[in-house]
Amino acid sequence: MSHVVKKRKLDKTRQDRLYFDSYSDVTIHEEMIADHVRTNTYRNAILRNGESIRGKVVLDVGAGTGVLSIFCAQAGAKKVYAVEACSIAEQAAEIVRHNNMEDRVEVIRGTVETVDLPEMVEVIVSEWMGYALLHESMLNSVLYARDKWLKPGGLILPSKAELYITPISDPVVEDRLHFWYTVKDQYGVDMSSMRDFARRCVMNSDITVNSVTVEDVLSHPARFAELDLYSVTVEELRSVKGHFKCESFGSAAVNALCVYFTVTFPCPEKPQALVLSTSPFKPETHWKQAVLYLDAPVEVVQDTPVTGEVSMYPSEDSARHICIHVDYSIGEQKRQSKTFSIPDWSSEAQS
Prior knowledge:
The protein is of the alpha/beta class and 351 residues long. Helix content is 27%, strand content 32%. Helix 8 packs antiparallel against helix 9. The radius of gyration is 22 Å and the shape is elongated.
């Protein structure tokens, strides 16, 4: 027996509740704090901007456990407003008290769109990035805070985000598909006809969040989009897109595209800005990479061009979920199109 579950579009209130509820458990905060690349880069960026933070008023958008707010207080901030919508705000307030910071860090329970701050701020800090950068759509809240609460000439940490794409060969996929050819030797039943069905199931339209190894990357990554947090608008986030061109390193089978991001923190006192990267070529973060499986693998040789256009936009079913549409050509192959999305956990929560 089979049945089809029709997904209903979630109203915004329900989308927000599901989103904020997901941050009410310790697991996600443990994962984020334990991500040394993430947490230490933010700490270094805040401390390196000490001159810009010292004696200033700071807004931490989506403060979570309040760790970034405390970093800002340690860097000399006069006042930090730690705005957090979910119940983890209670733990954040306890952590602030435990660190004797309550005179400088004030935890405010609510969304940044609804809270009322007693003053304008000179610095905004936020860890807003989701899978594939834009999944969960928290950047909108940072831009709202920028437009409403940030004084002219104020500082935003991080200040820039960039998106990259590169073709990859995922050996796990090939192993899973080849498995069906091995069944006959093991059990005397030829199940090779399962390969096409397995390929459709495995190489589907989901955005797969996974760690990509350097050995699986088939070209230099191409940057296809850049967001300047001082100027980007919510309207522009409705469709973040750009072209890309990669050239393969050697002979292999391209079976997926990998999307990742970097964010950059200005460091006026240092010769180089500080970059938090989720590249496969850098130490792993909890964001890992976004893997987009093609419908079928394509063989490439040295310098085979992989070109196309990527478009990222909010899902119609839930504005917090991201969709990625890719038009691409590999070598002489005709142009292909495929749209990907992260599996919608919220549809299972519907009655």
